[in-house]
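Thread title: Can someone regenerate the structure for this chain?

I was given the following input by a collaborator and told the matching structure tokens would be attached. They weren't. Posting the sequence so someone can regenerate them.
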Amino acid sequence: MKSDKRSPEQIKILEGMDKVYEKLIEFKKRMNSELVIIKKGKIVKVKP
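Best answer:
Regenerated them for you:
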């Protein structure tokens, strides 16, 4: 997406999603649990 077509609300939502992602990775590292992602169309469990 081009940033010039994003509304201020969309920018705030994307910034919030970035913070949530960072907190998720931090939590998974702290709990030593796997992170489930989709990679090349397949479900994969990875260590953060």
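Residues 3-46 form one domain.
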